[in-house]
Amino acid sequence: MVEDKPFVDSVESSDHKLRCSEEKFEFLFEHSPSGMAMVDFLTGDFVEVNGSLLESTQYSKEEFLKLSFWDITPKEYQAQEKQQLEDLRTKGSFGPNRKEYIRKDGTRFPISIRGFIITDVDSCKVVWGIIEDLSK
After folding, report:
1. Per 3-state DSSP, what percentage of the chain is helix, strand, and coil (rounded to 5)?
2. Nearest-CA neighbor of 32 among 51, 46, 54?
3. Is 0.85 topped by the overall pTM?
4. Are residues 12 and 40 located together in one domain of the fold?
5. Which whole-number Å values give the CA distances from 95 to 12, 39, 76, 86, in the listed order?
6. What is the mean pLDDT of the chain?
7. How remote is the C-alpha of 23 from its chain's centroid?
8. How, if at all, do strands 93-102 and 46-49 pair?
């Protein structure tokens, strides 16, 4: 049997590069001083969140992933939220915008947020949000 060694080496190299890239992204996501969250564009539900945002909001990851961005945004920011959604639809991104988030204990804290929309590997539209806790 003749083995196609260059092809096998190429596939192994590609797999290694992909693993390294995933590990770098995961490290950046988990250790970023900025809050980061992935939100389902259609529902507004949180899909992923990093430790920095969990620390600021005082939720556990399990609790946070049961929420939508509407749950942690005070009602008076509804018009701004609608504009952010429109910007996502038309421009693919929004921000930076200032507003507040609501912590688990009901207190509020100021944030600066920006976001952009992407299509994930399952062809679902998701929004990546980068959130700066301005109270720190």
Report:
1. 40, 30, 30
2. 51
3. no
4. no
5. 40, 16, 18, 12
6. 90
7. 17
8. unpaired
CA distance 7 to 104: 53
User: Model confidence at 4, in pLDDT bands (50, 70, 90)?
Assistant: low
Sole residue written with tokens 């945002």: 53
Asked if residue 70 and residue 120 are part of one domain, the reply reads: yes
Q: Please answer whether residues 117 and 129 qualify as being in contact, where contact means their C-beta atoms are separated by less than 8 angstroms.
A: no
**pLDDT tier at 20 (50, 70, 90 boundaries)?**
confident
> What does the pLDDT read at residue 106?
98
Residue range(s) defining the domain that contains residue 11: 1-31
CATH number of the domain bearing residue 57: 3.30.450.20
Residue reference for tokens 């910007």 = 87
Residue 107 identity? T
pLDDT over 60 (residue 2): no
Is pLDDT of 10 > 70? no
